[in-house]
Amino acid sequence: QVHLVESGGGLVQTGGSLRLSCAASGTISSLDLIGWYRQVPGNQRELVATLNNFGVTNYADSVLGRFTIARDNDKYTASLQMNMLEPEDTAVYYCHAQAKTPWDPALRDYWGQGTQVTVSS
Which residue, 4, 30, 35, 42, is the most exposed by fewest CB within 10 angstroms? Predict the structure, then answer.
């Protein structure tokens, strides 16, 4: 089993910055695609950014140029640097990873518990 724990959420004013972190733990054979998603109550969870283990990134248009995703493959951690935050960025942010464990050769999806980001106007 792989566990993901997010941290770094909070309250910030418009134009401010926050950095989210995600730590993966458990017996991990490989950590492939990692990503950040967000969800507002009543809406579907939406992709914010992803980063695969070849260094290829994908960003939602709404965050392009403001958010930066990164990972540390040695420590099994990921981060999301969020700059120029807007009230529309307010949501619960979830870390996602596709990982393999020694006893399961298939890539499985894992999610963190989420961290609240609130941007005040």
Answer: 42
